[in-house]
Fold this protein.
Amino acid sequence: MDDRLQTVRKALTGISGVPVTPYRQDGTVDVEKLGALIKRLTVARVHNLMAAGNTGEFFTLTMEEVRVVHAATIKAADGMSLVSAAVGRSLTEAKALARDAIAEGADAIMGHHPMDPFAGPSYQASYFLELADFCTVPVIAYVRSDGFAVEDFRKLALHPNIAGIKFASSNLMLLADVIRATRDAPAIWVCGLAEGWAPAFYAMGARGFTSGLVNVFPERSHAIHRALEAGSYAAARDLIDGIAGFELLRTKYNNGANVTVVKEALGMLGTDVGPVRVPGVVNLDDDERRILRGIVDRVKNEVFAA
């Protein structure tokens, strides 16, 4: 397990891309298009693929569809990129999904934040700890709340089977506190808020970042990552400025357009992956689509000119 943990931790210091889930016209998962997308991401050298993550619309997929996405991603990646299979909902369901993903060959398991409206923060941490106890591959804890106590985070970071914590809160003071409190822990702290927040997270001591943009412009994500790894924050900011409008569109409707923007941008580049499922924003309106088209055309030309 030590070698596996080191492999996963190394991947977490890179780009953790979250692939979208393509749908056929009848609304079912399009395994062929998903496989093609995964192959493109592996050719683009994305370090870690988080199959059925939030950008993959995990919470609109049935349990069987999640299994289909996991299996298709693992098969298409073919060992070229590390695959972290995302699991969640009840702990029983998360364990069942993890068991099946591991049997398919997943390199790691990413536990989605438990979303029960009556959850106690310390018990949400216990959810991750129990999942890590159960799994026979390394686990990544996806924490989307700043309600955990520092001691809860410390328990996660010290668990022998937790490779890293995907920290998806903008509470940077808490991030600084937990990184200070876990300097003796080997777990990696990952920016879970994508490229735009990555410089601030790096300054606090985190490494790597998650990305939905990587579905569309992996070259831009890699350039941002290289700049951050080199400590060139000015260069990273310049690169992020170029996709700021893209990320801003994703935050519309209380983040309801997060996946919609990525899918429509892919369509503008010639890859139709279908609409977003309800309750996500199914389609952008004409004005939003016009703004997105301008961003895509500009960034596409910048990438091709590089």
In short: Residues 69 and 191 are 24 Å apart (CA to CA). The chain has 14 helices and eight strands. The two ends are 40 Å apart (CA to CA). The beta strands are 15-17, 48-51, 82-87, 108-111, 139-143, 162-167, 188-191, 209-211.
